Amino acid sequence: MTVMRISESRTEFKLKNPPEDSISSVKFAPKSNQFLLVSSWDNSVRLYDISTNVERHKYTHDLPVLDVCFRDAVHSYSGGLDNTLKMYDFNSNMETVMGEHKDAIRCVEFANEINAVVTGSWDGSVKLWDNRAPQCVGTYNQGNERVYTMSVIGEKFVVGLSGRKIFVWDVRNMSQVNQRRESSLKYQTRCIRVFPNKQGYVLSSIEGRVAVEYLDSNPEVQKKKYAFKCHRIKEGGIEKIYPVNAISFHSVYNTFATGGSDGYVNIWDGFNKKRLCQFHRYNTSITSLSFCHDGSALAIACSQLEDSDEVEDPKPEDTIYIRYVTDQETKPK
User: CA-CA distances (angstroms) from residue 36 to 13, 99, 122, 155, 316?
Assistant: First the structure.
């Protein structure tokens, strides 16, 4: 298969004043290609204006922050190893402690469908939070397995758990799990993202593989699911296999980017089973990816993973790249 390799150019730049430790999550604001939230193992959450390359705001937790999300243009939510969910108002520079889990908060997402925050924790639960009042409005057991990753699009809510289990929920009715699945990949789940059209989801594992799954249980639809190998490098006749840490969907084209511990970002057309392009190799592992709402820019977080087997010495610089992507790179052929 011929792959278009994209070299570094004026379409890409580094954000100034990056976090001082590994970057755990990057997320663009809704309906914006200007504001980017970044959480880090340096205990901080930062808001960047990428149009001027300026850090606008910064607030902290007591321990490393593992995930962050926007509610709207001026409010963020964040959680991490201090077990605490915080809301921050960038207009007033005020923070509110919403509540906590019994263990680390691994995932934080905003569910527009129900106007609520959703958190997933290593305590084996998912919680819903009312954004109008700092309180938890529901706790939902995930089979007592750690929540590793989750994704919400509309009413569809998919949770990836430590034992390779996948729970599919409907955020409008959390009284029961809609589907209980097992990952089609043999190894631990690293990231899950629901397709923008809500037909299915893409998940990645620590063992250089990605699976495209469909939610409709009709056997004809299920025949379309598949998995493929990626983020592998042959050196000296030996294939090195890397975790696929990050996935982000292009909201316009339904194509998606993957980022791996090999330092590469690939763009895929999941429906036609094609790789569209591969960017140049970055300085270390890709830990998080985020397309902005119109798909014109991709934020790429590069950090040595805290749980990585491959410790580089000296530790590579923690960097966030902003890449303005083209239709050639992201549009199905």
Answer: 14, 24, 26, 24, 22
Q: Lay out the sheet containing 226-229: strands in order across.
A: 189-194, 200-205, 209-214, 226-229
* Domain around 38: 4-330
Alpha-carbon distance of 194 to 186, in angstroms, equals: 20
Q: Which amino acid is at 16?
A: K
Give me the CATH number covering residue 117.
2.130.10.10
Distances (CA, A) of 52 to 33, 44, 138, 177, 219: 12, 21, 40, 44, 50
Q: How far, in Å, CA of 199 to CA of 179, rounded?
A: 14
- What is the C-alpha separation between 255 and 271, in angstroms, rounded? 8
Task: Determine if the pTM surpasses 0.90.
Answer: yes
User: How large a percentage of the chain has pLDDT more than 90?
Assistant: 86
Contact 36, 19 (CB under 8 A): no
CA 23 to chain centre: 12
Two tokens, residue 50:
């990428």
Structure tokens of 121? 């924790």
- The C-alpha atoms of residue 287 and residue 290 are separated, in whole angstroms, by 11
Better-scored residue on pLDDT, 51 or 307: 51
Q: Residue 251: phi, psi to the nearest 5?
A: -70, -25
Instruction: Name 228's Cβ contacts closer than 8 Å, sequence gap at least 6.
Output: 209, 210, 273
Total tally of structural domains belonging to the chain: 1
For residue 316, the model assigns a pLDDT of 83
Distance CA 287, CA 299 (A): 11
